[in-house]
Amino acid sequence: MAAPRTPLPFLVLLLLVVAALIAAAPLSSAAEPGSFDVRRHLSTVTRYDVARGSNSLASAPSMSDECRVIHLNLVARHGTRAPTKKRIKELDRLAVRLKALINEAKQGHENDPMKKIPSWIKGWESRWKSRTKGGELVSEGEEELYNLAIRVKDRFQGLFDEEYHPDIYSIRATQVPRASASAVAFGLGLFSGKGKLGPAKNCAFSVLSESRASDICLRFFDSCETYKNYRKRKEPDVEKQKEPILEHVTSALVNRYHLNFTTQDISSLWFLCKQEASLLNITNQACQLFNEAEVYFLEWTDDLEGFVLKGYGESINYRMGLPLLKDVVQSMEEAIIAKEENRPDGTYEKARLRFAHAETVVPFSCLLGLFLEGSDFEKIQREESLDLPPLPPQRRNWMGSVVAPFAGNNMLVLYQCPRKTDGSKISWDQKSSYFVQVLHNEAPVSMPGCGNKDFCPFEEFKEKIVEPHLKHDFDAVCRLKPVVTEEPFSFSSKLSNFFLGLFSQKGSRVSAQNAKTEL
Q1: Which is nearest to 356 in space by CA: 166, 192, 221?
Q2: Which of 106, 208, 405, 408 is the most buried (most CB within 10 A)?
Q3: What share of the chain is helix, strand, coil (3-state, %, to 5)?
Q4: How far is CA 268 from CA 78, 98, 157, 256, 373, in A?
Q5: Cα(104)–Cα(98) distance, rounded to whole angstroms?
Q6: Reduced to 3 states, what is the DSSP secondary structure of residue 439?
Q7: In the Cβ-directed half-sphere of 445, how many Cα atoms lie within 13 Å?
Q8: Dihedrals phi, psi of 415, to nearest 5 degrees
Q9: How far is CA 363 from the centre of its chain?
Q10: DSSP label at 135?
Q11: Are strands 351-356 and 409-417 parallel, antiparallel or unpaired?
Q12: Residues 335-375: pLDDT tens digits?
């Protein structure tokens, strides 16, 4: 027998809570001059330069000048891209819908039905109207990766002194064009001046890709059946959790502009706002429909979706990224062996550079234990469920605009540090120490798994952060197992926890594992 539907009082209660919070929040226009900038609140559609400007992650002092970089791992998301074909069609439908709403308003009984309707809506058409292709890297995205490479080369000058060779500087990307194009843009910046091609003296370089069907290092989410099954089951729950906010914003905009918007209209208008602000730098059209508080809550719905379906919402989201974590650690171990054996420069790899997707960067960040709240790292180690990101106006670490903006990245920098032999003399012999530093969007971050230290001894990094994940295996984790049906009223129980969390200044509780399967 099917489980009963969620009791109405729960949803009504959440709607009342959201309404009260929005009413208590600032009500300035989203485009109003001042400290608020809607471009900083576009979740994973945020441009990289904007995200870097708002990066508030904790950082520590730089490493001692006595230490030197011997290897770099980069895991980066592609740069800013155009809307996908599916989203282009959604914007085409929105244009038809807005035209119908305008015509409906003209037939209304008000004296001046068009008075409160923003002028841009009248006759609006999508910038991507009728396009049959989408999702490609745009020029702004090319610049993001090119400029990132310039900064990386300047920051780690000694690491990129070598003449280019694919075994020294390995570049990998998924088979998706925007990812491989991002790799090319990065390579052009990194190896400029290294060759004889053109005025910039570029050199040719290789970008390696695996088939989408077998790329378990950068597109593990395509090969993990357990994850695909989890996502299919969980997406309806996420939509239900977003509903009260969308319903309240819809009601507010209907009253504000006297247009009979639906929640789907609001969802599409919010998407349009993100595209205009990010790709076109336009903030005075779709984005101006929403006040500041509404932007905060719509951003939270996007962040909620990313948390539950890609992040800490369930362990399968990041455990499927084990092949990538192993590849990163293996590359560092090989660099250490090369140093310990005193191999000359030019005979071992110095950088492994990867270009993929938000679905790659987010799980990898979770494997490293970034963006957690308080004691959440210990909960992860005990395989306990986590609270959802707190609702605005509460502060939260999990923000899509920081976790995985366009061109968002994690760099793992491996340092070799000398050991002092008698308190004064410095020795660069085979007794050197090795440390790992994690940079997120180029900013040093403290690692909860390493006592919140910024520089973690390599062996401690492996023991405290990597090895707890290695008790799991990609094939075992991702192989579908018999599904145990959830107990009746389980979703109601989750919502109940959610509301209790709201009133106790916490988020809701993500569902515990219901089946005896490794999720």
Answers
A1: 221
A2: 405
A3: 45, 10, 40
A4: 23, 11, 45, 18, 31
A5: 10
A6: strand
A7: 25
A8: -110, 145
A9: 9
A10: -
A11: unpaired
A12: 999 999 999 989 999 999 999 999 999 999 999 999 998 88
Per-residue pLDDT, 351: 98
Q: Name the token pair of 309.
A: 């379906």
Tokens of 492: 């109601």
CB 31 within 8 Å of CB 264? no
Predicted local distance difference test score (pLDDT) of residue 114: 78
Which run of H or E residues covers position 173?
A: strand 169-173
Cis ω on the peptide bond leading into residue 393 (within 30° of 0)?
Answer: yes
Q: Is the dihedral of CA 473, 479, 484, 487 positive or negative?
A: positive
State residue 85 phi and psi, 5-degree precision.
-55, -40
Q: Which residues contact 273 (CB under 8 A, 6 or more apart)?
A: 38, 42, 285, 286, 287, 289, 290
- In angstroms, the CA 157 to CA 152 distance is 8
Domains located in the chain, CATH noted: 66-82+136-224+320-382+401-477 (3.40.50.1240)
pLDDT-derived band at 422 (thresholds 50, 70, 90) equals low
Strand, helix or coil at 457?
Answer: strand
CA 35 to chain centre: 24
177 pLDDT above the threshold of 70: yes
CA–CA separation, 363 and 321 (whole Å): 6
Q: Cα angle vertex 433, ends 432, 438, to 5°?
A: 140
DSSP H helices, 31-165, are 48-53, 85-106, 139-155
| Residue owning tokens 């282009």 | 88
Percent of the chain whose predicted confidence (pLDDT) is above 90: 74
Phi, psi dihedral angles at 141 (to 5 degrees): -70, -40
Q: Tell me: the pLDDT tens digits for 68-116? A: 999 999 999 999 999 999 999 999 999 999 999 999 998 876 667 678 9
Query: How do residues 281-303 score in pLDDT, each as one tens digit?
Result: 999 999 999 999 999 999 999 99
Q: Say what the pLDDT of residue 367 is.
A: 96
